[in-house]
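Dear V.,

Thank you for sending over the compound details. I've combined the ligand you provided, magnesium ion, with the protein sequence from our construct and run the structure prediction for the complex. I'm sharing the raw inputs here so there's no ambiguity about protonation or stereochemistry in the SMILES, which I know was a concern on your side last time.
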Amino acid sequence: MRDTKEKIGMGNVTSVEREVVIKIKDIRKSFGENHVLNGFNMTLHKGENLVVMGKSGSGKSVMIKCLVGLMTPDSGYVEVLGKEISTLDQQHLDELRSDIGFLFQGSALYDSMTVRENLEFPMRRHKDKLGVIDDTKPLVLEALENVGLAHTMDLMPAELSGGMKRRVALARTLILKPKVILYDEPTSGLDPITSKEIIELMRSIQKKYGTSSLIITHDVDCARVISERMILLVDGINYAEGTYAELSASTDPKVEAFFKK
Ligand SMILES: Nc1ncnc2c1ncn2[C@@H]1O[C@H](COP(=O)(O)OP(=O)(O)O)[C@@H](O)[C@H]1O
Ligand SMILES: [Mg+2]
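Below is the predicted structure of the protein with magnesium ion bound, written out as structure tokens.
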């Protein structure tokens, strides 16, 4: 197996080794003449909250799809949890995906299934990881309790508010105890108060499970609250990188544009 550790500097004081969970090197992706990713680089370390911020249509979803093998980059290198995505066959890709929680843009619950059935779905799909489960109810309840929605187990998605649907979707990703969670626009389409609740929930999950999180958003408030480090995706590259405080103080016009109210 490849060495997934790399040395990173911590200021000029010391240098520590942190495990690398995701590594993207120089990926490119075009759709005809539309050059979306033009050499994007990113590293996510274990236990870290990394926010990638980019304008609508800048290629955030394309990038995250390349990470889980839903899309193939034209060139470049993508590694998740020590596995190079392009070398995996379908079976190994499925195995890897059971360690990746993916909260899709929108909630993507199955409308014709109850909340419980929605949560049971990934358990059936990844039964190799979870082993034989006689009674799914305790696991479903535990996942729903984590998002404060144990009482919705037998409801249909149509009976839930937008914020509740988002929470159920999060519970569904937690059921497989992922090592890394990818959030694609977790607060989009939600009112400010519900957005705040979702952000708080993401933080508490991070604390409880010690997961590594990649959060993709164009929501500056979300980035401010949750990020330890940020990457700005502009013109298909990692245009700027730093903490929220560093980036929001930048005088580069393309960086400033993100933080102007
Ligand atoms: N399957 C596809 N076929 C053609 N163009 C696509 C496809 N997926 C995304 N795109 C284009 O790539 C660009 C980036 O899309 P996307 O990653 O969804 O943006 P966002 O940053 O808003 O998530 C857009 O111009 C979009 O039209
Ligand atoms: Mg998107």
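A first observation: The first helix runs from residue 60 to 67.

Warm regards,
I. M.
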